[in-house]
Amino acid sequence: MSTPRFLTLPAVARSVRLETARGGFAALCARPPGGPVLGTALLLPGFTGSKEDFIALLEPLALAGFQVVALDQRGQFETGGPDDESAYSLESLALDLRAVTAAVDGEGPLHLLGHSFGGYVVREALLRAAAEGGPLPWDSLTLMSTGPGPVCAEEAGRAGLLVSVLPPVMELEAVWQAMQELEAASGEVPETTPEVADFLHRRWLANVPASLRVTGLRLTTEPDRVDALAGVRLPKLVLSGEHDYAWPVPEQAKMAERLGAPHVAVAGAGHSPNAERPADTAAALADFWSSVS
Question: What is the pLDDT of residues 210-250, one digit of tens each?
């Protein structure tokens, strides 16, 4: 999961609840403190993530002139959702994204970004919109730390194990404690403040189990749809860290080539460049979005 380094909102940002035709969605919104708004960006987190994964991007992107909306998807953290697996299909999450897009009071070009599993969602939404014909509701697409199909075999094994022990097999608290023990045994415990550690725990417990089951399984079964996406005409960017445990970076670079898109690898970052190297990530995003008319 992505681990934000801090939780205090910058002065340019605020917490909001976006009311849409498909219900309310928790979000963080940031606006440039002055001057023109160059565009609006809608950011979707990945599996077990939340809007806070993007908190370190809010200020640098706002200062670069962009309005930013980071979202909790249905079933995540403060958005919530029903304990009904059909609510978390890619089709349903793509419909949620369309509803949020319609509800966002944006200025300038509208840029869409999906991180990790969020990349599946933005791809699904874009392909569906393209199939309808007519103008697309978004002006650019960024795929961040996501791949053309399922995650690598090792990560698929971990996701499959997690899905197998989710409620009703084990309660979320018991699963959390088991994950903590596994991290401690592997030496992979991220360095965090007590505040962030408490947030990660609360966020995990706030997940809707049905959402975790469906999205976790999807990470292991999603087909390669890059060729279809390449046929959708809008500017695209593939952005990754210089290493990634979920999709190998060379695989992401090859996806960019197939899309006819640039690939930016953020130095020193892994699966979450948004949290690990936010200044460099924001600079790369601002450069790309500024090139989109």
Answer: 999 999 999 999 999 999 999 999 999 999 999 999 999 99
Closest residue by Cα to residue 24 from 94, 88, 103? 103
- Residue 73 to residue 100: CA distance in whole angstroms: 10
CA 283 to chain centre: 18
User: pLDDT averaged over consecutive 10-residue blocks of the chain (293 residues)?
Assistant: 91 97 97 92 97 98 97 97 96 98 93 98 98 94 98 94 93 92 73 92 96 96 97 97 96 98 97 97 98 87
Residue bearing tokens 């990470």: 219
What distance in Å separates the CA atoms of residue 171 and residue 161, rounded to the nearest whole number?
Answer: 15
42 strand-pairing partners: 69, 112
d(CA 247, CA 47): 14
Which 3 state secondary structure label does DSSP give 133?
A: coil
Among candidates 171, 173, 153, which has minimal Cα distance to 219?
Answer: 153
Residue 248: count of CB within 10 angstroms of its CB:
14
Asked if 292 and 39 count as a contact pair (C-beta separation under 8 A), the reply is yes
Q: What is the number of helices (H) and of strands (E) in the chain?
A: 11, 8
Find the helix packing angle between 90-103 and 117-132, rounded to 10°: 70
Angle between helices 117-132 and 209-221 (to 10 degrees): 80
